[in-house]
Write a structure and sequence with these properties.
Low-confidence stretches of chain B: 1-20, 391-395
Shape of chain A: globular
Helix content of chain B: 55-70%
CATH class of the largest domain in chain A: Alpha Beta
Order of helices and strands of chain B: HHHHHHHHHHHHHHH
CATH topology of the largest domain in chain A: Rossmann fold
Strand content of chain B: under 5%
Largest sheet of chain B: none
CATH architecture of chain B: Orthogonal Bundle
Strand order of the largest sheet of chain A: 6-7-8-3-9-10
CATH superfamily of the largest domain in chain A: P-loop containing nucleotide triphosphate hydrolases
Helix content of chain A: 25-40%
Largest sheet of chain A: 6 strands, mixed
Strand content of chain A: 15-25%
Number of strands of chain A: 22
Oligomer: heterodimer
Number of domains of chain A: 3
Distance between the termini of chain A: 57 Å
Number of domains of chain B: 1
Radius of gyration of chain B: 22 Å
Radius of gyration of chain A: 25 Å
CATH architecture of the largest domain in chain A: 3-Layer(aba) Sandwich
Mean pLDDT of chain A: 88
CATH class of chain B: Mainly Alpha
Mean pLDDT of chain B: 88
Shape of chain B: globular
Chain lengths: 531, 395
């Protein structure tokens, strides 16, 4: 294997290195799209061996800047320097040839092909003019993996790998092409906390070898943990560059959003009332026929937020789907206000006051090609005032959309643009507006703020607390423990299809809950664990 | 307020500083029609080349450069040059409107209805049978009965693949192709054997008598043409303005979101396929009650498959389907005159039609070559086709 160049001895955070010549400099980059300046004279400088975080809200211009770097877009003004040489990057192939690698948030992998085939795709290592040198390629891939601290099976089908490993394949793809500057677009958005820790280890080793890493994120604590320097972008402009040592989460959040942000909502006192939902011995199977919810029982009271914590894949999805009606349970009861609803259709349940924010907002929550106003009435389109009989009343739809856009602060040019053109945070606000409005007895929130920026998170959390105080029973399912600890009045931990422990939301300690999530066993009070 | 694409893998084409402002729906309509229009133009060019080459085959050999112009002029004259020509164009276009809708409405629900031909045959057969049975009744009674029977039979033949898809997951492309073959063979057997009308040399059903669609306004323009032109606004309203249409479009765009929102994708799939069958059945009704007058033993027709071209050319929209039907119908109407005047076989029409379809299917290639920017996602009908052939897994 050829060495990746860069003899620079770069240590993480070591101040002596700040004098090294930048590996990449972007100067005065400006990019205009009709009606918006996506990048406004942005300067960015990344040194060899540096992990440089690019922080900003959705739509701030991070992705545009990176698309320019990767040759996917051309800047209207400004210049790019690699190792002090001004360059024009024509297209991604050019960018790759110049040592720039990009790991997209949504992986660009072929699931049925092996790790080796995926890495070779587009840059085949040839044994001769006809055949690919599989053996050599495999060897290089395994070596690369070892060098950065993981052992990868070069023959595994990519589709059979976990998300964390798929991401490593993406990184390997870039390294195989001898990338010296690696751009990672929100790499942790799809990872579990454990996988995040592992990938951080990989990134640190990459940096230690002299690679430059641009780490795009809007998770503040992650950025503080991994980055050597942090550049914050707001509305297309650089609003500040910080060293992690001299900043903190609220400082960064304020830079990002442009105003003071409440990182934790003031949740106040809850006043739980009668039990609204009773789940008794619920059993549900997943698509493959495995019983993933195995005898779950709990009560959900009016005016409380019950948090279901758990590592993803412990049956939460099936539990949520069984309560909302997307999946038929194989056993047990779900009652709403003393009526058994376990066999009712989704529509009947919605009519009884169940609102639902799905975990996968683009797959379930929205029809991306439909205008915002149609998305806002996706579940109520057939009822007055939106329809009389089979006739839709478009005027009522547009009017109520205007109200919702105003009330839920949805940033959109109009109610008629396709929902898919909005930023992630605003897409989620469309869903929140739809599911929170009307008389709601129960709200099921599945990862309601995943992938959102701090401003949107703050907004959604506040709305959730308001709903709770108005007497709605709220079931909050999240793999992000911080969110549950912040909002829930009671916390239950789901482990392998069962609820194994209950905590008081105000007194629960993060580490205790995390331990139960990981092991299914509560350390001290094992006896009363099965509440 | 509009934000740059958050994580679009491909950035939009660099834009001119200040794009001319056009009303959004109009701009969209123009953009949507560009590829179909380019496809038609290209197909006419290809057709012209073939006509030129064909002149090499006749005596004396030599390229007759004026021949394509002569041929196309005759085509135009034969389709629009006289009242009779226009009537023929309308009569030819009418069943295409119905089969175009039968395929186009399916596209809206994410269904690729290749079975319009079989549905058409059953519609025509049922109309012929009931028409013959009520042939002596007054037309005011006979026509609704025969037409109704045709619609029901078509709907029933569309219901089958719909139900199979909804409840077993059987793909409609496969089932409708099979049902086409079943329809051809079954009906042919019935006409040749059980329902063969006595007294004719060739097997056929009895005459439909008073159930035949009468001419309206001018000679040759039968009532079926009015049915077809009435169907367009009705279907437009149904798909774009009614609640059931909202459900159809939602299921087509995102079946998971439809289920999540409380719709029943299964129910919608069955209803949509039955509706498609009904529309295709009407095309059969028009052919039998409006043109032929009885069901012949061999009723060879490609109207159902032409419906696919019409739906694609018309971008699965009633207005587009109207224009596409008029174009294809006009070519059929004008072809005989072209054969007489330019000595070009009528089959050249099939070539042109096939080339149109070819360029429509090569949507991205055409866009690339002619620098037509796509607005938003690929048209639903193309997404449906791609999905149908395993391009992107259907949910």
């Amino acid at each position: 294997m050829r060495p990746s160049g860069q003899g620079v001895e770069a240590g993480r955070g070591s101040m002596t290195e700040t004098l090294a010549a930048p590996a990449l400099e972007m100067r005065g980059i400006t990019k205009r799209y009709p009606g918006v300046v996506a990048n406004d004279r942005i300067d960015l400088e990344v040194r060899p061996g540096e992990i440089h975080a690019l922080l900003g809200e959705n739509g701030a211009g991070k992705s545009t800047l990176m698309n320019i770097l990767y040759g996917l877009a051309r800047p209207d003004e400004g210049e790019i320097l690699l190792d002090d040489q001004a360059v024009r990057i024509a297209d991604p192939a050019d960018a790759i040839a110049r040592g720039i690698g990009m790991v997209h948030q949504h992986f660009m992998l072929v699931p049925v092909l092996s790790v080796t085939d995926n890495i070779l795709l587009g840059d085949e290592t040839m044994a001769n003019r006809v055949f690919i040198d599989q053996k050599e390629a495999r060897r290089r891939i395994v070596d690369l993996g070892k060098r950065f601290g993981f052992e990868i099976d070069p023959d595994a089908a990519v589709g059979s790998l976990s998300v964390g490993w798929q991401q490593r394949v993406e990184i390997l793809k870039a390294l195989y092409r001898e990338a010296r500057i690696l751009v990672l677009d929100e790499p942790t958005a799809v990872l579990t906390p454990q996988e995040t820790v592992e990938i951080f280890g990989v990134l640190r080793r990459l940096a230690a070898e002299g690679h430059s890493i641009i780490f795009i994120s809007h998770k503040l604590y992650e950025v503080l943990e991994i980055a050597d320097r942090i550049t914050v972008i707001r509305r297309g402009r650089v609003v500040g560059t910080r060293l992690p040592a001299e900043t903190d989460e609220s400082d960064l959040a304020e830079l990002m959003v442009g105003r003071e942000v409440q990182l934790t909502v003031d949740r106040g006192e809850s006043a739980p009332g009668q039990a609204v939902v009773r789940v008794e011995d619920l059993r549900v199977r997943d698509d493959r026929g495995h019983e993933t919810v195995r005898g779950v029982s709990f009560e959900l009271r009016a005016g409380e937020i019950l948090g279901i914590a758990g590592v993803a894949g412990n049956g939460q999805d099936e539990l949520v789907e069984a309560i909302t009606g997307l999946r038929k349970p194989t056993g047990g009861r779900v009652t709403l206000d003393a009526e058994d609803i376990a066999r009712l259709s989704v529509r009947r349940r919605r009519e009884r006051g169940i609102g639902y924010i799905p975990g996968d907002r683009q797959r379930f929550g929205l029809v991306l090609g439909f205008p915002v106003d149609d998305n806002l009435v996706l579940a109520t389109y057939y009822r007055p005032p939106y329809a009389s009989g089979p006739v839709r009343n478009e005027r009522a739809v547009v009017e109520s959309a205007r109200e919702a856009i105003e009330r839920y602060d949805i940033r959109t040019p109009s109610a008629e643009v396709p929902a898919g053109t909005l930023s992630g945070g605003n897409q989620q606000k469309v869903i929140v507006a739809r599911e929170f409005s009307g008389e709601k007895r129960v709200l099921v929130l599945d990862q309601p703020t995943r992938g959102l920026d701090v401003g949107s998170i703050e907004f959604i959390h506040k709305q959730t607390i308001q709903k709770r105080d108005a007497g709605t029973a709220i079931l909050l399912v999240s793999a992000e423990l911080d969110e549950i600890l912040e909002l829930a009045d009671r916390i239950m931990v789901m482990y392998r299809g069962e609820l194994v422990a209950e905590f008081d939301g105000r007194t629960a300690v993060k580490e205790d809950v995390g331990l139960v999530m990981a092991t299914g066993v509560r350390p001290s009070e094992h006896a009363e664990a099965s509440a | 307020m509009s934000e740059p694409p958050a994580s679009a893998p491909v950035a939009p084409v660099p834009s001119t500083p200040a794009p001319r402002r056009m009303p959004a729906p109009l701009a969209r309509a123009i953009n949507v029609s560009l590829v179909p229009l380019i496809s038609i133009a290209l197909a006419l060019v290809v057709g012209a080349v073939i006509i030129l080459l064909s002149s090499l085959a006749v005596e004396p050999p030599g390229i007759d450069w004026g021949l394509p112009l002569t041929a196309y002029a005759a085509l135009l004259q034969g389709s629009l040059g006289s009242e009779k020509a226009i009537v023929t164009t309308l009569v030819e276009a009418s069943p295409l409107i119905f089969t175009g809708l039968a395929v186009g409405v399916g596209f809206k629900a994410g269904l690729f209805n290749i079975g319009a031909n079989g549905q058409l045959l059953w519609g025509g057969f049922a109309a012929a049978m009931v028409g013959a049975a009520v042939a002596d009744q007054p037309a005011i009674l006979a026509i609704p009965l025969a037409v109704g029977a045709g619609m029901l039979a078509g709907a029933a033949w569309g219901f089958i693949p719909g139900a199979l898809k909804a409840y077993t997951g059987a793909h409609e492309v496969v089932t409708t192709i099979m049902l086409n073959a079943i329809a051809v063979i079954t009906i042919s057997g019935l006409v040749n054997d059980i329902f063969k009308a006595p007294g004719y040399t060739f097997a056929r059903t009895a005459d439909v008598g008073n159930a035949a669609l009468p001419n309206v306004f001018v000679p040759g323009l039968n009532l079926g043409v009015l049915f077809a032109f009435a169907a367009l606004p009705i279907i437009y309203w149904l798909v774009w303005r009614s609640t059931i249409g909202f459900e159809i479009r939602t299921v087509g765009a995102n079946p998971s979101a439809a289920a999540y929102a409380g719709m029943s994708p299964r129910r919608i799939i069955v209803i949509t396929m039955a509706l498609c069958g009904l529309l295709a059945g009407m095309a059969g009704v028009l052919e039998i009650l409006g043109v032929v007058g009885s069901y012949p033993a061999i009723f060879g027709t490609n109207l159902g498959f032409d419906g696919i071209t019409v739906a694609l050319l018309g971008r699965a929209h009633p207005v587009g389907i109207l224009f596409a039907s008029l174009l294809l119908g006009g070519m059929r109407a004008g072809a005989p005159l072209m054969q007489i005047q330019a000595d070009i076989p009528v089959e050249i029409i099939d070539v042109i039609q096939a080339v149109i379809l070819f360029f429509l299917a090569a949507d991205r290639m055409v866009r690339h070559v002619f620098r037509v920017r796509a607005v938003g996602a690929a048209p639903e009908e193309l997404q449906t086709i791609t999905r149908s052939y395993g391009g992107k897994a259907a949910v």
